[in-house]
Structures are given as C-alpha cells and as structure tokens.
Amino acid sequence: MADTADTRTPAQIEADIRRRRAVLAETLDEIGVRVHPKTIVGDAKAKVVANVDHTLGRAYVRVNRVVSDVKVRFVDEEGAPRMERVVPAALLVVGVVGLLTVTARRRKG
User: Fold this and answer.
1) Cα separations (Å) of 22 from 14, 15, 16?
2) Does residue 98 register a pLDDT over 60?
3) Residue 81: φ, ψ to 5°
4) How far is Cα 77 from Cα 63, in angstroms, rounded to an integer?
C-alpha cells in the first residue's frame, strides 16, 4: 500500500491554503458577476440585438436580391430603361393609384 503521508511543512500547508482561498474567492466573485441581475439582463439584451442584427441582415439580402431582379426586368445590360416594360408598369401603377383615389373619395362622400 502506498504511503499517503503529507510531507509538506506547516508553512507550505498554510501557503497552499491561502492560494486555494484566493482561487476560491476569485471563483465566487466570477459566479456573483454571472448571476447578478444586471449581467443576466445585459446578456439577454446582447442576444436580442444579435438576433435582430442577423434577421435584419437576412432581410437586407432578400430585399437587395428582389431589387436586383426587378432592375434586371426594367433595365437592359447597358443601364438604359426597357421602355416596353416600363410603360405598361407605369400605366398599371397610375391605374391602381387612380382606382384607390376614386374608392377613397366615394367612401368619404
């Protein structure tokens, strides 16, 4: 059977105890900071901000893709408008706005 007797001097034992107390105090301080309500709220806010940023980033990419797709339909490779597509789209927009205006006036009057 192995000898498990402690061969440290009382001074070494006391130094080891002080070192372990310091490490334990530091650990307890870290735990205190982690469970502090302000820390928990701050972490939650950071997660929300990160999720919003991620969602907005994805939305920006999608909108940019849609705008690019629409641009390809109404502008040729040289950047000139494709009148055969712009004119019918403009007439459609004018018609829808006119219809909405007439409908709104009928409801008021």
Assistant:
1) 12, 11, 10
2) yes
3) -70, 140
4) 21
The two three-digit tokens of residue 62, written as one number: 């999608």
Query: Residue written as tokens 């490779």?
Result: 77
Q: What percent of the chain has pLDDT over 90?
A: 74
Check: pTM over 0.70? Answer yes or no: no
pLDDT of residue 4: 73
Closest CA to 85 of 76, 97, 96: 76
Distance CA 55, CA 33 (A): 30
From 64, 89, 86, 62, select the one nearest 74 (Cα to Cα). 86
Backbone phi and psi for residue 7, each to the nearest 5 degrees, phi listed first: -100, 10
